[in-house]
């Protein structure tokens, strides 16, 4: 985080704009909308700027004395010497200063603003690309309609009453999330506030009977945050606790609610932070404490993610849960590696298998795996790669069958090693790929060389 995002109250306070042109007019207008009094200093000031109500126009070159009693400064001139003097003078007095289009001279950045007062959204590129922030604001304009201001005003009106009914902050947050993400919000947005009032009051009276604890079993996908589902993102923002494993990338964990407690329960081969049974018990205990628990699992929770074992325990204990599927590693990683899992010239079927069983062995149905015209995707198979290749050859698969290892697929650390059943174990021994990896076996791997050139994710 390059800048601390804050909202500053300038109502009734004097702010200085250095520069009397069109840019100065825009900056002064924003300050006036925020309730500030504005002093504009420049040798020449646009008449329409000087006439704005609340503007004190000073026809002069900037002098440090113009900073007297000022709470905030914006320099909006095309004279860098004046901008530098303004910045240095303001910093010497510990007054926040922004110099338009010159981040090096700024102590704060003016963000792009989406105004749905009392709801405000502000975002910035840290001065790197104002055009990009304006484009993003345009996207949000279509997502957050004007009538969201009604919803913010409704919440503001009931804030103190809800505090009286719901005294615990954590329960109060859950109460508001339920109110603002359901029928009540729809009533407010459509203008039926009388109905919304009655429904909110009923929620307050029944607040003690609301079920608290719940578990969200969410597939985090293969690594790239862009592959998360909308539903996953929504639940990630509601959770009180995040329980995540070794296959969930840090950027995805960071997308969960900022103040949610994070518990790492990662498992690597022969190195388990918690045994699966202990993870199951942890989810139950947290839910019984009234927590909304986000169980983040790499890929899809029901494809070699042991999600079935976790919900079995939750169901036995009567814990409510939701399951959100994710893009499984086989699909996401193969796509980013430029390997189509099915292609009618190469594969008529696709099999997903795990590289080691619960007891650590690799006792697979080799005859079934070695069938022609088939793609085999092996999860967690790196440790047993030599055995995998040897057994497939032994059971009839040609030595020249293409095979690939994809390391940390869909992330910036993605690496793809290709070879044949005969050569890949030696390649892996030399290149030493790092887990997590996915192994893809079959004729479709040969297409990577052709398709990788056209895939923007290749590396």
Spell out the blueprint of helices and strands.
Blueprint: E1 14-18, H1 22-33, E2 37-42, H2 47-50, E3 55-59, E4 72-75, H3 80-92, E5 97-99, E6 112-116, E7 119-123, H4 130-143, H5 148-165, H6 169-180, H7 183-189, H8 193-205, E8 214-219, H9 230-236, E9 241-244, H10 250-253, E10 261-264, E11 267-268, E12 271-272, H11 276-288, E13 292-297, H12 307-316, E14 321-324, H13 329-336, E15 349-354, H14 366-369, E16 374-379, H15 385-394, E17 402-407, E18 415-420, H16 424-431, E19 437-441, H17 448-451
Parallel strand pairs: 1-2, 1-4, 2-3, 4-5, 8-13, 8-14, 9-10, 9-13, 15-16
Antiparallel strand pairs: 6-7, 11-12, 16-19, 17-18, 17-19
Helix pairs in contact: 5-6, 7-8, 11-12
Question: What form results from the Cα inertia axes?
Answer: globular
CATH H-level homologous superfamily name of the largest domain: Tetrapyrrole methylase, C-terminal domain
CATH fold type of the largest domain: Methyltransferase, Cobalt-precorrin-4 Transmethylase, Domain 2
- The chain-level mean pLDDT equals 90
Profile the largest sheet: 5 strands, parallel
How many helices? The count is 17
Query: What share of residues is helical?
Result: 25-40%
CATH C-level label of the largest domain: Alpha Beta
Domain tally: 4
Spatial strand sequence of the major β-sheet: 3-2-1-4-5
First-to-last CA distance: 28 Å
Structural class assignment: alpha/beta
Provide a brief overview of the structure.
The protein is of the alpha/beta class. The chain has helices at 22-33, 47-50, 80-92, 130-143, 148-165, 169-180, 183-189, 193-205, 230-236, 250-253, 276-288, 307-316, 329-336, 366-369, 385-394, 424-431, 448-451, and strands spanning 14-18, 37-42, 55-59, 72-75, 97-99, 112-116, 119-123, 214-219, 241-244, 261-264, 267-268, 271-272, 292-297, 321-324, 349-354, 374-379, 402-407, 415-420, 437-441.
């Amino acid at each position: 985080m390059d800048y601390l995002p804050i909202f500053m109250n300038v109502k009734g306070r004097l702010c200085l704009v250095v520069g009397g042109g069109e840019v100065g007019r825009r900056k002064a207008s924003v300050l006036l909308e925020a309730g500030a009094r504005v002093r504009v200093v420049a040798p020449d000031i646009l008449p329409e700027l000087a006439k704005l109500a609340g503007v004190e126009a000073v026809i002069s070159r900037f002098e440090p004395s113009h900073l007297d009693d000022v709470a905030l400064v914006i320099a909006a001139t095309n004279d860098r010497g004046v901008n530098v003097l303004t910045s240095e003078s303001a910093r010497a007095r510990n007054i926040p200063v922004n110099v338009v289009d010159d981040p090096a001279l700024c102590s704060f950045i003016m963000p792009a603003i989406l105004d749905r007062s009392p709801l405000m959204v502000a975002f910035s590129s840290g001065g790197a690309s104002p055009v990009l922030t304006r484009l993003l604001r345009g996207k949000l304009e279509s997502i957050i309609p004007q009538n969201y201001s009604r919803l913010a005003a409704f919440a503001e009106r009931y804030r103190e009453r809800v505090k009286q009914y719901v005294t615990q902050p954590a329960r109060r947050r859950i109460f508001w999330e339920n109110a603002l993400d359901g029928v009540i919000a729809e009533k407010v947005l459509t203008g039926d506030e009388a109905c919304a009032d009655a429904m909110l009051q009923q929620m307050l009276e029944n607040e003690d009977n609301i079920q608290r604890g719940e578990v969200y079993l969410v597939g985090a996908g293969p690594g790239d945050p862009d592959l998360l589902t909308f539903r996953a993102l929504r639940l990630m923002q509601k959770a009180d606790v995040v329980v995540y494993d070794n296959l969930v990338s840090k950027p995805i964990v960071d997308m969960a609610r900022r103040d949610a407690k994070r518990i790492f329960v990662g498992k690597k081969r022969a190195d388990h932070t918690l045994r699966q049974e202990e993870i199951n018990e942890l989810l139950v205990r947290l839910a019984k404490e009234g927590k909304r628990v986000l169980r983040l699992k790499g890929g899809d929770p029901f494809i070699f993610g042991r999600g079935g074992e976790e919900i079995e325990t939750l169901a036995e204990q009567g814990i409510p849960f939701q399951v959100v599927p994710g893009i499984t590693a086989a699909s996401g990683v193969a796509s980013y590696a430029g390997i189509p899992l099915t292609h009618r010239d190469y594969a008529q079927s696709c099999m997903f298998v795990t590289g080691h069983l619960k007891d650590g062995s690799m006792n697979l149905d080799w005859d079934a795996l070695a069938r022609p015209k088939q793609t085999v995707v092996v999860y967690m198979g790196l440790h047993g790669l030599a055995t995998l290749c040897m057994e497939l050859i032994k059971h009839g698969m040609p030595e020249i069958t293409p095979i690939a290892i994809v390391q940390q697929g869909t992330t910036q650390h993605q690496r793809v090693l290709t070879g044949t059943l005969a050569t890949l174990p030696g390649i892996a021994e030399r290149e030493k790929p790092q887990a997590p990896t996915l192994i893809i076996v079959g004729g479709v791997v040969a297409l990577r060389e052709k398709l990788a050139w056209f895939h923007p994710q290749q590396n």
